[in-house]
Design goal:
By secondary structure, the protein is of the alpha/beta class. It has a single domain, classed as 3-Layer(aba) Sandwich (Rossmann fold), CATH 3.40.50.720. 41% of the residues lie in helices and 14% in strands. It contains eight helices and seven strands. It has a seven-stranded parallel sheet with strand order 3-2-1-4-5-6-7, sandwiched between helices. Strand 5, helix 5 and strand 6 form a beta-alpha-beta unit. It is globular, with a radius of gyration of 17 Å. It starts with 20 loop residues before the first strand and ends in a 6-residue tail after the last strand.
Amino acid sequence: MLKQDYKFESRALYPELKGKRVVITGGASGIGKATAKRFAMEGAKVVVFDYNEKAFDALKQEIPELAGTVKVDVSNEESVAAAFKQMDEILGGIDILISNAGISIRKKFIETDFTQWKRVMGVNLDGMCLCIMETLKRMRGEKTKDNPGVILCTASTNGMEGHPFYTDYNASKAAVINLVRSVALEHAPWIRCNSICPGYVLTPMQEAEYTQEMFEECNKGIPMQRHADPAEVAALYAFLASDEAKYITGQHIPIDGGETA
């Protein structure tokens, strides 16, 4: 495990999130798990979607307040549709979607085959599209200007600028940013839709790709001199879902320790 001493302590801040029906994709690890913890702490009814069904037992022990878990391949239309039907049975509807599931593979573009390209795009972009579509079907006619639905997507600072070794990932996240902008414009004022653009976050995906030496070298280029704690990203999600963010839509919001500055 990559060594980092900093630890963020989250706390419930938004009573209006109590009882809200929340779906979090990729919620069994990393940013998704931290976000599931945060919304459960806020009193929301949380259903986690994830492909890694083996992680569900441990997740339920860690977050006993979870309303449910559903295995889903977000890149597959039939799997997403079936998962949302299961969610309907558990929650009876949806107030907040946090579309977070994503993958990355560190490789030079010239060594990337089209199978890898399609896999990354399938999870990172198609998955966002399919989950948003299913959410909009359920929110249409139910949400209003005074009680809008909330759709939040995990993009990346990699979608804002070029980075070597992650061309497919970068392209997918840039597309997510513009997907969110377009959905926000088409569906205001009864939907608020924003994306979060994390920089370096200490997650299992990051640990799988970086050595301790790479991690320390990377931190030298971040003004805050460290990776983000996943709970810090979860805190931003909680704010954007809260009533305090009611005038924020169509935005992509970096959380990167100042790196893109």
